[in-house]
């Protein structure tokens, strides 16, 4: 089954409308074109492309299909330009309205699919992982911000609208990735559509933690970088400590703080997630029961 996503266009003074909130409630996502403008994207790309931390802290995971997906992740937003995006009203404030309550920064990651070698991300729900982190409710979500043009050729995000209404699906291991039970996914895809979310730099997809999604390998000559910020409702504070933060108040900033920030990534206070395998081993042990 195939379909298209309902989309909204960002305005200079972006505000979440009732139609946007209803779309997220019904479909499990909110697609906003041009949430970050050209000037903001220029500064963010400059910061990431000149960030020594990409080489220092990034790590790869075998996708179970002969390639690796690369990540660069941290737990606290910080005070640099990446933190200003994560703390901005049009990003964090939007999720507070979509999740109907105060949120805090759960983690951020840069996902990198290199030309011809970038791996796939298997079908999964984010709450398929976060359930095991002591988060009792799926009152969580992620915003996927395209840093490059993302399309079918370089492995754009694919989502299953309305799949958040099914609840959490059992997850299993494939290669070094944990993904949704494929037998269950096969049945889901008989009744719900798959949508390829092709995006331009600055477009943003907010999606619920139970939305089923994946992305294919990058078989193009173009890289595919994306900036993903995850949030948890303050009321959903994890009941057990784990490798991502428990409730930490998020100090939001006006959208103007993005352009006011220098185009530099600062390591201070980020609490980088090193991907040393500890969290993966813990998760696969829990998934295996």
Automatic annotation (TrEMBL):
Gene3D superfamilies: q2cbj1_9rhob like domain. Its cofactor is Fe cation. This is Probable phytanoyl-CoA dioxygenase isoform X1. Keywords: Dioxygenase, Oxidoreductase. Transmembrane segments: none annotated. One of its GO terms (molecular function) is dioxygenase activity. Pfam families: PhyH. It comes from the Eukaryota. Signal peptide: none annotated. It comes from Lingula anatina.
């Amino acid at each position: 089954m195939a379909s298209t996503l309902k989309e909204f266009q960002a305005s200079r003074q972006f505000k979440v409308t009732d139609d946007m909130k209803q779309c997220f409630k019904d479909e499990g996502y909110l697609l906003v074109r041009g949430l970050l403008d050209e000037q903001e994207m220029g500064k963010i790309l400059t910061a990431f492309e000149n960030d020594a931390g990409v080489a220092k802290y990034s790590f790869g995971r075998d996708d179970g299909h002969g390639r690796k997906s690369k990540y660069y992740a941290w737990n606290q937003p910080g005070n640099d330009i990446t933190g200003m995006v994560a703390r901005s009203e049009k990003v964090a404030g939007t999720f507070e309205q979509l999740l109907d309550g105060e949120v805090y920064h759960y983690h951020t990651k840069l996902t990198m699919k290199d030309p011809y070698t970038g791996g796939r991300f298997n079908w999964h729900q984010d709450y398929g992982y976060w359930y095991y982190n002591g988060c009792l409710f799926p009152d969580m979500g992620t915003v996927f911000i395209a840093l490059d043009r993302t399309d079918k050729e370089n492995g754009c995000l694919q989502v299953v609208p309305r799949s958040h209404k099914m609840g959490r699906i059992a997850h299993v291991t494939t290669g070094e990735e944990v993904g949704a039970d494929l037998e269950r996914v096969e049945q889901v895809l008989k009744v719900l559509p798959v949508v390829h979310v092709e995006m331009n730099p600055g477009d943003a997809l907010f999606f619920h933690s139970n939305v089923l999604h994946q992305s294919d390998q990058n078989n193009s000559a173009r890289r595919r970088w994306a900036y993903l910020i995850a949030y948890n409702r303050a009321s959903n504070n994890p009941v057990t400590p784990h490798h991502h933060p428990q409730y930490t108040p998020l100090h939001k900033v006006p959208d103007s703080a993005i352009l006011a920030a220098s185009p530099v990534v600062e390591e201070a206070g980020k609490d980088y997630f090193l991907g040393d395998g500890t969290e993966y081993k813990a998760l696969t042990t829990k998934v295996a029961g």
